[in-house]
From TrEMBL:
The keyword Transmembrane applies. This is 4185_t:CDS:1. The keyword Membrane applies. The chain crosses the membrane at residues 5-27, 47-67, 79-102, 114-131, 163-184. Keywords: Membrane, Transmembrane, Transmembrane helix. It comes from the Eukaryota.
Length: 201
C-alpha cells in the first residue's frame, strides 16, 4: 500500500517537474537555440499552432496523475495513459529534429535557402514521414502518427520555399493516408473480435 502511494506521489512530482520545465522553456529561456521561440526560426520550423501538442499532452498527463488515485476504467486508461505517452513519444522525436536544426543550421532569412539546406530539410522530412509509417506498420500507433502528420502540415504552412513547402505537404498527405489505413485496420479488428481495441496497442 505504501509502495503504491509512493509511486503515485512520484508520478505527481515528475509531472510537475515536466510542466515547470516546459513553461520555463517557453516563457523564461532566452530562446536562442530553442525551437519554441520565434528568435531562431529555421527552414524546418513548423507553424506556431503545431506546438499546441504540448498543451494536449500536459492536459492528458494532468488527468492521469489525478485519475491514478481512483478506480481503473479501460476507456479512461486508454485516454489518460496510452494516448498521452504515445503523443509524448512522437512529439519528442519532432522536438529532437527541430532542436538539431536550431543548433546546426543558420537562422531563416528572407533569402532562399542554399541547395544543401534544402537537401538536408527534405531528408529530415522523409525521416519524419518514415517514423509516421513505422508507428502505423509496427504497432498501429495512430496517435503517434497523427503528431508527425500534424507537424508536417505545420511545416507546409510555415515554409515558403517551394521545395520544402510542397515536400512537406506531399509527405503530410502520405502520413494521413497511413493514419486512415491504421484506423481502418483498427475498425476491422474491433468488428472481427467484438472487443474494444486501443488506439495504440
Amino acid at each position: 500500500m505504501a509502495h503504491g502511494l509512493l509511486i503515485k506521489v512520484l508520478n505527481v512530482l515528475s509531472y510537475l517537474f515536466l510542466l515547470t520545465a516546459n513553461v520555463y522553456s517557453v516563457f523564461e529561456g532566452d530562446g536562442s537555440q530553442s525551437p519554441y521561440h520565434e528568435s531562431h526560426k529555421t527552414y524546418i520550423s513548423p507553424a506556431p499552432f503545431v506546438f499546441g501538442v504540448w498543451g494536449l499532452i500536459h492536459f492528458l498527463l494532468g488527468g492521469f496523475v489525478i485519475y491514478q488515485f481512483f478506480a481503473p476504467d479501460d476507456v479512461i486508461v486508454e485516454v489518460l495513459i496510452h494516448v498521452p505517452f504515445s503523443l509524448y513519444h512522437a512529439w519528442i522525436a519532432v522536438i529532437l529534429v527541430l532542436s538539431v536544426f536550431a543548433i546546426i543550421t543558420p537562422e531563416k532569412t528572407d533569402e532562399d535557402p542554399i541547395v544543401l539546406v534544402k537537401i538536408v530539410v527534405v531528408i529530415a522530412l522523409l525521416i519524419l514521414k518514415g517514423l509516421s509509417a513505422t508507428y502505423i506498420e509496427a504497432g498501429n500507433d495512430i496517435t503517434g502518427a497523427i503528431v508527425i502528420a500534424w507537424t508536417l502540415f505545420g511545416i507546409f504552412v510555415e515554409q515558403e520555399d517551394p521545395v520544402i513547402h510542397w515536400s512537406a505537404l506531399v509527405l503530410a498527405i502520405f502520413s494521413t493516408i497511413h493514419i486512415i489505413k491504421g484506423i481502418v485496420d483498427l475498425f476491422n479488428r474491433n468488428r472481427g473480435s467484438g472487443e474494444y481495441a486501443p488506439l495504440n496497442p
